Amino acid sequence: MSPKTRRPANFYGQFLGRFTTVIVLLYRVVTYYLYLILGSIFLPRWVLRVFGEHPEDEE
Questions:
Q1: Which of 37, 52, 53, 54 is within CB 3.0–4.6 Å of 48 for a Cys-Cys bond?
Q2: What is the pTM of this model?
Q3: 14-37: per-residue pLDDT in tens?
């Protein structure tokens, strides 16, 4: 296989060996799914606090 047709999986496989899939999944969990989970927890609370109904002040 010539260097021009080498796929990225083969490139990373040279450095990480058999752990390529594990490292990629761990990276995805930490950088993507963690933010989705945190956003699903904090975003509804923030939206309710900022855009929710507030009692009007009587002066």
A1: 52
A2: 0.49
A3: 777 777 788 888 888 888 988 999
